[in-house]
Design brief:
Elements lengths: L2 E2 L2 H20 L6 E7 L3 H17 L2 E7 L5 H13 L5 E4 L9 H7 L11 H9 L7 H12 L8 E5 L6 H8 L9 E5 L6 H5 L4 E4 L17 E4 L3 E4 L7 E4 L4 H4 L5 E2 L7 H23 L1
Parallel strand pairs: 1-11, 2-3, 2-4, 5-6, 5-7, 7-8, 8-11
Antiparallel strand pairs: 9-10
Length: 295
């Protein structure tokens, strides 16, 4: 039976450190500021944005949520990004994705000041992650790294297989694990929708990280005995027994895979809480960097 790692337990340690750093900044007259731009009324985005704001307040950070209508023009959104770039009280900000289809996400991301890009989506920050000299780490992959550390997983020399090649999780996760250093030095394989003999490769994984967006895609026969399994997927499936008629499940068949794995994360409650936690860490780091520049 696998050890189940909960994101709230891992994040508690990170938040304790962040509170100390925030108090240090405040003693210098600097309150870390995080802004989120939400365009439209996507329900999942609204929940996520609300949680970010609540955590900012809990940590004693400045939090701003800018809500813009779904028919916001590209020019209006770019003007808001420019305004936030110039606002010294905002140390980090993000534009919540996905955007309405008529808006150019790439242009918006490219317009964000890399020093305030706490989502780590700007090409210059993505490049810094790849070469192993990051200012920020993407929040979800950074959260996975913290989970591996908390679970006492020795990553060095291990075969890490990442299921999924998104710019948000799969690619940056590979870039982080392949670096030299703590919680890294892994041999990394990425598998995706065009991979041949995918189960054969996942069965080789010492560490299996899954972010493919397919409910319960990874079954027990696809996992090696004793593997570490990190489930990044979040999928809503029908469940007549639930009051809502549905529930959240991951990309891993948790109930069966936990019998083979040594360590596993659940959905919900695993990686999810770590994403907001590491976003807060990036915002505090941005404030620290800005404070050093001013001095």
């Amino acid at each position: 039976m696998a050890e189940v790692i909960l994101g709230k337990d891992v994040s508690a340690e990170v938040y304790a450190e962040l509170r100390t750093r925030i108090e240090r900044l405040k003693s210098k007259g600097v309150t870390p500021g995080l802004a989120v731009v939400l365009v439209g009324d996507d329900p999942a985005s609204q929940v996520y944005v609300r949680k970010k704001g609540e955590m900012c307040e809990e940590l004693g950070m400045k939090s701003i949520t800018i809500r813009m209508p779904a028919d916001t023009t590209q020019e209006q959104l770019m003007a808001k990004v420019d305004e936030l770039n110039k606002d010294d009280s905002i140390h980090g900000f993000l534009v919540q994705l996905p955007l309405p289809s008529h808006l150019d996400e790439e242009a918006v991301i490219n317009a964000i000041d890399p020093n305030k890009d706490v989502d780590c989506f700007h090409p210059s920050n993505v490049g810094r992650v790849l070469i192993g000299n990051p200012d920020f780490l993407p929040a979800t992959p950074a959260g996975v790294v913290q989970i591996l550390i908390k679970a006492g997983v020795d990553v060095s020399g291990k075969h890490a297989v990442i299921v999924g090649r998104s710019n948000i999780v799969g690619k940056p996760m590979a870039a982080i694990l392949v670096q030299k250093g703590a919680a890294a030095d892994a041999t990394v394989t990425i598998v995706h929708s065009h991979t041949k003999n995918l189960p054969e490769i996942t069965r080789q994984a010492d560490i299996l990280i899954v972010a493919i967006g397919k409910p319960r895609f990874i079954t027990a026969d696809m996992v090696k005995d004793g593997a570490v399994v990190i489930d990044v997927g979040t999928n809503r499936v029908e469940d007549p027994t639930s009051p809502k008629g549905s529930r959240l499940v991951g990309d891993v068949d948790f109930d069966n895979v936990k019998e083979k794995a040594s360590v596993i994360t659940p959905v919900p409650g695993g990686v999810g809480p770590m994403t907001i936690c590491m976003l807060m860490a990036n915002a505090v780091k941005a404030a620290e960097k800005a404070s050093e520049v001013k001095q």
